[in-house]
Amino acid sequence: MDLRNIMEREQLEDIEIQLLLEGVYRYHGFDFRNYALASLKRRIWNMIHNEGLTTISGLQEKILHDREYLERFLFNLSVNVTTMFRDPDFFLTFRQKVVPILRTYPFIRIWHAGCSTGEEVYSMAILLKEEGLYHRSRLYATDINDTVLRKAKSGIFSLKLMQEYTANYIKAGGKTSFSEYYTAAYGNAIFSSELKENIVFSLHNLATDNSFNEFNVIFCRNVLIYFNKALQSRVHTLLYDSLVRLGVLGLGRQESIKFTPHEKDYEQIVGSEKLYRKMG
């Protein structure tokens, strides 16, 4: 295949993807049009192969006419890779540097934007419980994907993961035995219902939805890397507007506030971790 044919094929592929995403947005209201194109292509083609299809247009037909295909599409395009106490140094820094700030508030509101299956939310619930702050905290866990939200709400994870999660918990400054927070049954770890008492699970689309409260802390970790620059700017403004003054923003290791609309409105809490405090 010569260069001209390759370029024409890639151009056609981009047009098909744009039509697919436009159709999903217009008919179902889910907006992926400003997600990073390279990542989208990989996820879309993975789904095409898994569904036994051959073309993007064929996938579009299925998604627009079959709700089950839409659910699988949302699952494939959502970022669902997470672990408890992921990047333990981040949580250790949060415990050491941010918790003293939170102690000064009579009530604490925390937003986990793009919470996926909930491991980060339960990690924070455990941390706050150990610091004596959970009883006056409310954690809002949101995601675009209803399927992963249902899993998050269940608080049930594979028992095979607990060794890794326990190691992360210890490195993150855990103060007791991690096994105290769950019950082992039928190959699963069922986390204590007490950890869910102050968690609100809800659908929220960072690409289209607006702010719904003011927060003392917002976590949006390992989500922005999947957006293009325009959507990143939109989300950064949403997060900034949702934080109280002196509120704390936590990002993923590969993410930054540099070159965003509010770069100058934050101060970094610790240079090695992506924790920022809103000053503007």
UniProtKB/TrEMBL annotation:
<dbReference type="InterPro" id="IPR029063">
    <property type="entry name" value="SAM-dependent_MTases_sf"/>
</dbReference>
<dbReference type="InterPro" id="IPR050903">
    <property type="entry name" value="Bact_Chemotaxis_MeTrfase"/>
</dbReference>
<feature type="domain" description="CheR-type methyltransferase">
    <location>
        <begin position="5"/>
        <end position="280"/>
    </location>
</feature>
<dbReference type="Pfam" id="PF03705">
    <property type="entry name" value="CheR_N"/>
</dbReference>
<dbReference type="InterPro" id="IPR022641">
    <property type="entry name" value="CheR_N"/>
</dbReference>
<dbReference type="InterPro" id="IPR000780">
    <property type="entry name" value="CheR_MeTrfase"/>
</dbReference>
<dbReference type="Pfam" id="PF01739">
    <property type="entry name" value="CheR"/>
</dbReference>
<dbReference type="GO" id="GO:0008757">
    <property type="term" value="F:S-adenosylmethionine-dependent methyltransferase activity"/>
</dbReference>
<protein>
    <submittedName>
        <fullName>Chemotaxis protein R</fullName>
    </submittedName>
</protein>
<dbReference type="InterPro" id="IPR022642">
    <property type="entry name" value="CheR_C"/>
</dbReference>
